[in-house]
Amino acid sequence: MREVDAPARRDDEVPQTASVRRRQRRRRAASLLACGTVLLAGCAAPPGAESSAAHGGEADLVLPDLSAVTALGGVPGRTLLLLGLVVCVLGLTFGAVMLARLRRLPVHVSMRDVSDLIYTTCREYLLQQGRFLLVLWAFIATVIVVYYKVLVGFPWGKVAIVIAFSLIGMAGSYAVAWFGIRVNTFANSRTAFAALRGRPLPVSRIPLQSGMAIGMVLISLELLIMLIILLFLPPTIAGACFIGFAIGESLGAAALRIAGGIFTKIADIGADLMKIAFRIKEDDARNPGVIADCVGDNAGDSVGPSADGFETYGVTGVALITFILLGVGDPAVQAGLLVWLFVVRAVMLVASGASYLVNDLWTRHRHAASTRMDFESPLTALVWLTSALCTALTFVISWFVLAPVADDGLWWKLSAIVSCGTLAGALIPELVKVFTSTASRHVREVVTSSREGGASLNILSGLVAGNFSAYWLGMAIVALMTGAYAVSGLGLDELMAAPAVFAFGLVAFGFLGMGPVTIAVDSYGPVTDNAQSVYELSTIEDLPEIEEELRRDFDLDPRWATAKRMLEENDGAGNTFKATAKPVLIGTAVVGATTMIFSIIMALTEGLTLDLDRLSLLHPPFLLGLVTGGAVIFWFTGASIQAVTTGAHRAVAYIKDTIRLDGVTHASAEQSREVVQICTQYAQRGMLTMFLGVFFTTLAFAFVEPFFFIGYLISIAIFGLYQAIFMANAGGAWDNAKKIVEVDLNAKGTPLHDATIVGDTVGDPYKDTSSVALNPVIKFTTLFGLLAVELAVSMRGQGQGVLVLTLAAVFALASFACVYRSFYGMRIGRTGDESPEPLPSEPDADAGPATAPTTDQPTAARADAPRDAPTADAPHGADTDDGLDEVPDEVPELDPAPAR
């Protein structure tokens, strides 16, 4: 390959050297850490202050004696939980077996080399993110030390245990993210190779196998850690360890979700826009942005969801544990509910694995000889089968565990409430498909509107789909929560305070009961997306004597056209089911947040006995908090999109300057690494600014007034729910509208295709950056806010009200600085303190038509080349399926979509 000299670089166009960037990041991180430490050190109580001053309830949580619980047949509760540990080990073993099986699947070396390159680059990205996470964790550890040591008065041993579990929580999110990219990068090349046989069954099974491996490992590891806390730590410290663990995993999920979402969409937009600029095909190996796009598929669609799912499952459990210990008075009932909670979780883990095996057996029987199949069908069947089995087992296990605890039908009441959430786990994906599936009328409306209206009407139709989806999904969630509320009124108030709040938490618990399957169908998407890219990047069709080699070594007669068509169709199914998981996770965050907010209310009102009048619109701070939450949600949305926009601008500029289409078959490794560095740089810059903004905002509002903070938490949950659903499903509609044009209409390279590409690039940060990051941000704010508000209340109880308000002002100024920097520090044309690049001057109307730009690099492809001029060195097979060399004169009309 001929080496091409890089064009001249301006400081505001290309990142500086890696060493300079590292030094700058270290200085910024050190200064921010020092600032936060100094500020939080001011929270320390003065010498002589009583450590027994008023503090939050969670520090005093004591677990009941779990061995006192006896299920039907005399089985001790502790024995049941120990069996849960066995289930967790089996789940981890399931994931390891799946990983080994994927690794042994046949794959051609050209495809394996591409997937190995993707994994290697992902690994470097994760290592950078891991170092960054440790810096962010230092902020949280400082707050934990100040609160538990100085104000609560824990001895250093207990404080160390709490800090250790916060680190374990963060490490857990990080570990499952790493496992996810390892599994997916095995599966993507194996899926691409399996497509060459022309049979759809393995193209469907391999991504689902990888997804189930991730889902089972994720849930098993989460449940294992929580059971260890429950069973083996002293009851007096376990409650605080649960909080520390949840905060740590929320930190890991928030940072990885935000950074991964920014990274993947910078790369995706940079790669997609080249299709319009240079008339090249999808995943062209000569495009240096494609490797970054593949890495981003894992960073954003695998790393982020894996960490997010791990955190969501854990935080929901911690919220329910906290409620049980604060809201239920009888220790015997507390113990019974805790044992029931974890036994049901373990049984649902088994149910998910069994459902997958049964569904896989049925799919193999049904499609063993098929030449075409609906790739969404096995995923839909798996979701509904798991939901039905989990519901049935919930009633059986609840009767087995809870019948001795209470004789008033508690077992069936709680089972019915959980089943509302389990039903939601299957119903919500069906509603999402109405707005995002390639077969839905909304998505086809996006395509139809693009025919004459181009990108403008494409975008407007996508916005319509997103808004309608927020309405219908919101109403569905409200209906299911209403059902749970109705059941909670059937005598649960005799056992606990605020039974409706517990019911809402159990709905979230039911959402996640089929967690392995929810994660599996979500992880299906990045594998199918990468499989397409691996196929193109391998340039397997151009290899000399490749067909003879495949027949000799793999007993395979390659079906090139069929393989590419199946990979595209399967990618559409992956897009749909990626979209289905997002509302489930955000819905869980919001519904589960109500339970954690209740814990804060219990601490502030001393068990609902004082200051209840402040939880009212008549209390102005509470009302102001309700209004404030929306502002923060909209800032976060804008800041995350701004980071993507600026990074994508930089990536596009670099790719346009360096891409070579003549005389080469692949972009150079150096060019691809440079695009990855651009994505990483802006992902970390954006993530740091936004995380610190959320961090200081939480501290500021918690210190202002506790009931103002409760209103704020309620507000961000509600605003975040609808903002996330709207953005996720609008983005999904735009994405699959493009897929319809590429697959069903075979209209690549047409103006219609260009319009859908523009819509898709608008939807990219909607669905994969802003919407998905709201979930961990809401949970992190609620969990960290639990410590922050108790810190403020404790200081006020020690007569430090003036200091509390002073710190609130300081934290507010820090948060405003982060908000300001999230735009003005990320503007296009700036990398730091440089002046923004001047706008181009208006053309002279009298000067005649503008001349086409010239280039002193004759080998570079020209963005102004005729649309119908194929490049001379188009890869072998490019005229088979991609539609670039033979663009249809007229795009065929869409068939009517089936009614949904």
How would you describe this structure to a colleague?
The structure is a single chain. This protein has 21 helices and no strands. With 900 residues, it is mainly alpha-helical. Its EC number is 7.1.3.1.
Topology, please?
Layout: H1 18-41, H2 77-104, H3 109-152, H4 156-194, H5 200-232, H6 235-278, H7 289-327, H8 331-367, H9 376-402, H10 410-436, H11 441-488, H12 499-511, H13 515-538, H14 546-554, H15 560-604, H16 620-658, H17 669-704, H18 706-743, H19 751-797, H20 801-824, H21 878-881
Helix pairs in contact: 1-3, 2-5, 2-8, 3-4, 3-6, 3-7, 3-13, 3-17, 3-19, 4-5, 4-6, 4-7, 4-13, 5-7, 5-8, 5-13, 6-7, 6-16, 6-17, 6-19, 7-8, 7-12, 7-13, 7-15, 7-17, 7-19, 8-9, 9-10, 10-11, 10-12, 10-15, 11-12, 11-18, 11-19, 12-15, 13-15, 15-18, 15-19, 16-17, 16-18, ...
List the main descriptive attributes of the protein structure presented here.
disordered N terminus, translocase, hydrogen ion transport, 900 residues, 74% helix, 0% strand, mainly alpha, K(+)-insensitive pyrophosphate-energized proton pump, transmembrane
Percent helix: over 70%
Q: How many beta-strand segments?
A: 0
Structural class: mainly alpha
Number of helices: 21
The general outline is globular
Which stretches are low in confidence, meaning pLDDT under 50 for 5 or more residues running? 1-20, 29-56, 831-835, 842-889
Order of helices and strands: HHHHHHHHHHHHHHHHHHHHH
* Main pleated-sheet profile: none
Rg, rounded, reads 27 Å
Gap between N and C termini, in Å? Answer: 52 Å
User: What amount of the residues lies in strands?
Assistant: under 5%
Arithmetic mean of pLDDT = 84
Cofactor: Mg(2+)
Subcellular location: Cell membrane; Endomembrane system
Catalytic activity: diphosphate + H2O + H(+)(in) = 2 phosphate + 2 H(+)(out)
Protein name: K(+)-insensitive pyrophosphate-energized proton pump
